[in-house]
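Slide 14.
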Amino acid sequence: MSEHNSNNDTPAIGAALDFTLRLARAQAVMLRRLDATLGGHHGISFSDFMLLLYLNRAPGGRLRRVDLAERQGLTASGVTRTLLPLEKIGLISREADPRDARVGFAAITPTGQAMLNNALLTAQQTCAELLRNCPADQLDTLGAALGQVAGVHFSST
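Slide 15: predicted structure.
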């Protein structure tokens, strides 16, 4: 059976692939724009911004590094490499668990919170510009669908 025929036999599979390809392209465009805008105005990447946002939303402004890695889609060593420069410039700090020395936390600092508050408006404006032609109800529906694919609900991340 040819690839073309298999797509005709199962239109849902073709639609899923088409959606995934468009999503990947849209993600690349959005990440480039957010990286450029946040970097130009605040000196941080979108990945740094997300990390600060996750920490800020966490109870006590801190998360175990392993939980932060999961939210970022990184390995434990990957998140450690991401945290180092943010720690050096005072946006996050490392904290040990007093009950378990093997557990390490990342915590947002007051400087990190100030950076996040400033960057949040820039990120919101950039996203609004990128999505200006998308109806709000479609964004809600797509957001819910993407949350299902990712296995998360944004309010809990």
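Speaker note: Residues 34 and 146 are 19 Å apart (CA to CA).
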